[in-house]
Amino acid sequence: MELKLSRRRFGQLAIASTATGAIGYLANKTFAQMPNLPDLTLYGARSISAIGQALIQTLNVTSPSIGNLTNFGLQPGEKLSGFTFLADGTLVLSFSAVLLGKKKDIDTRLVFIGVSGVSLKPSLSLSGLKKEETIDSLLGLKNGSLIALVLKKNGKPPVKVVEIDTNSGQISLLDKIKLPKTDRFSNLAQCPDETIYTTAVDRKGETTLVQLDLGQGKPNPVAQLNLDNTIWTSGLNSLVCSSGGELFALAAPRYVTPKNVYKINPSNGAMTLRAEKWNVSKITTLQV
């Protein structure tokens, strides 16, 4: 059974979403400003395989302003697959194993960075992944644990929810959570009230916001995502929740880069443009 809302339900919920405020320009990035909102800093990361580097930036959505936090070297063929904050304020990035011809796969590993941009400890190789599996999303929970989505490297379902031991790198399956095999799940976000969200993309590309209860293990579809009253069919690159309980997504229409930042209304799935053309592939934010 596909995890999605009916078109009739979508029609009842959808509200045209428009960006408000002035448009500013900074460092070849254009941002949609919305006044009278508290400052919100998003952290963005991307891997640049051509030069073997990973880059972390910050974006103040309200100002707007953008800055470079740090950059560091990658192993050949690595790509960024997850990005999150732990409860103690540590930034964690995962880099996926990539098959390099007949060579051995690179280990999937975690990198730990402080908010000052300094590496906090050596990278940690993960154990417990099958050869055909990779990490898709990371999420540091309020209780201090780290969970992730695991899927096949070809992107096809099924998708599993796992917990990662940040000391040993061991991956453990959260087998109580059964995600439908008909949809491709990606992205994880937790709000201050401990509500966890993910997204499900069906065969048509239609994207649904889903609540995930780790205790009950049952995913609950909340709203079908839409932009300007049109069903969103391009998935999301990242999903985060701010200290104020606001959901933000990194996304763009299919095959379009760089990506944009949208605010999502969970009650109806409406996406509102907040920042344009931010050249990162994953985002996260620190809840304080």
The helix/strand order is HEEEEEEEEEEEEEEEEEEEEEEEE
The biggest beta sheet is recorded as: 4 strands, antiparallel
CATH classification class: Mainly Beta
| Strand order of the biggest β-sheet | 5-4-3-24
CATH topology: Tachylectin-2, Chain A
N-C termini distance: 38 Å
Q: Which percent bin holds the helix content?
A: under 10%
Question: How would you sum up the global shape?
Answer: globular
Give the tally of structural domains. Answer: 1
Q: How would you classify the helix and strand content by structural class?
A: mainly beta
Radius of gyration: 18 Å
**What is the average per-residue confidence, as pLDDT, rounded to a whole number?**
85
The count of DSSP E runs of length 2 or more, i.e. the number of strands, is 24
Query: What are the low-pLDDT stretches, counting only 5+ consecutive residues below 50?
Result: 6-37
CATH architecture: 5 Propeller
SS element count, helices: 1
Q: How much strand content do the residues show? A: over 45%
